């Protein structure tokens, strides 16, 4: 667990986090607040990439459960993430950041194609890189995309910004007032306890590549800035060697 700024990070922002207090869609005030935090964090000489979800607009899994072809539903969900990426890009630029959005789906009018080395070069030049459209493949969540892109670009930490949850709990804190929040977990503990961290494919990718994860509440004051600075917030997930004993 670090007490220093991370050199390169990837921030996963769920689509639901962009809704603010709304039931759906994009709340521009909320997006502007997130963009302001990312810009402030970047000023600490931290390279920041972002993966955005699309659940505030369209959820492929739910559409598939309602009868839509799963692959088709997932592609629709990827397009929703592109809409969110464009909104976040606009807010970041208004906050003074230089931004590049990349997509594995060809939408050349609004985003560059995803090219790993180009993305890394953008980061080295001080640009925020937004990865839209997940992995570009159906049956893969944006959590998996966040884990994959983190590994590909050599991120030191994966920051999982949650909507209304300040870490990982042993049960749903909204349903059980006695729910316990974990300060830290090993990958295997998170998998074996079936905790609501991310999907199992994403968590396995992080474990296999020893990519640590911090799960925290996006709505908490200066949470992104605090996380990239190395402050211990939320729940830290890592290897047995990196997790403090007895925590």
Protein model, in words:
Helices cover 36% and strands 18% of the residues. By secondary structure, it is α/β, with parallel strands linked by helices. The protein has a single domain, classed as Acetylglutamate kinase-like (Carbamate kinase, 3-Layer(aba) Sandwich), CATH 3.40.1160. Helix 1 crosses helix 3 and helix 5 runs parallel beside helix 7.
Brief summary:
This protein has 247 residues and is of the alpha/beta class. Helices cover 36% and strands 18% of the residues. The model has no long low-confidence stretch (mean pLDDT 90).
Strand element count: 11
> How far do the termini sit from each other?
12 Å
One letter per element, helices H and strands E, the order comes to EHEHHEEHEHEEEEHHEHE
Oligomer: single chain
Helical segment count = 8
The CATH superfamily turns out to be: Acetylglutamate kinase-like
Number of structurally distinct domains: 1
Mean pLDDT: 90
Sheet/helix structural class: alpha/beta
CATH architectural grouping = 3-Layer(aba) Sandwich
Task: Enumerate the strands of the largest sheet in spatial order, edge to edge or round the barrel.
Answer: 4-3-5-2-1-6-10-11-9
CATH topology heading: Carbamate kinase
Roughly what fraction of the amino acids lie in strands? 15-25%
Helix content: 25-40%
The CATH class, by name, is: Alpha Beta
- How many whole angstroms does the radius of gyration measure? 17 Å
The description of the largest β-sheet is: 9 strands, mixed
Q: Low-confidence parts lasting 5 or more residues at pLDDT below 50? A: none
Shape, per Cα inertia axes: globular
């Amino acid at each position: 667990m670090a007490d220093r700024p991370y050199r390169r990070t990837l921030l996963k922002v769920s689509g639901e986090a962009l809704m603010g207090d709304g039931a759906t869609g994009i709340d521009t005030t909320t997006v502007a607040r997130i963009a302001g935090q990312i810009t402030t964090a970047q000023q600490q000489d931290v390279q920041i990439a972002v993966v955005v979800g699309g659940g505030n607009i369209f959820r492929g899994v739910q559409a598939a459960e309602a009868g839509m072809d799963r692959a088709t539903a997932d592609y629709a969900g990827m397009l929703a993430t592109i809409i969110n990426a464009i909104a976040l890009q606009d807010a970041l630029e208004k906050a003074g950041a230089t931004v590049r959005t990349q997509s594995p789906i060809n939408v050349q009018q609004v985003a560059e194609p995803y090219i790993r080395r180009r993305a890394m070069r953008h980061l080295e030049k001080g640009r925020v890189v937004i990865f839209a459209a997940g992995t570009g493949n159906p049956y893969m969540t944006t959590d998996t995309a966040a884990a994959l892109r983190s590994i590909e670009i050599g991120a030191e930490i994966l920051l999982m910004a949650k909507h209304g949850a300040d870490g990982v709990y042993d049960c749903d804190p909204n349903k059980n007032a006695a729910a316990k929040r974990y300060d830290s977990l090993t990958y295997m503990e998170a998998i074996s306890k079936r905790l609501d961290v991310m999907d199992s494919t994403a968590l396995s990718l992080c474990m296999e590549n020893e990519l640590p994860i911090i799960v925290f509440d996006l709505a908490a004051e200066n949470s992104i800035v605090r996380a990239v600075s190395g402050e211990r917030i939320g729940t830290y997930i890592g290897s047995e060697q990196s997790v403090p004993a007895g925590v």
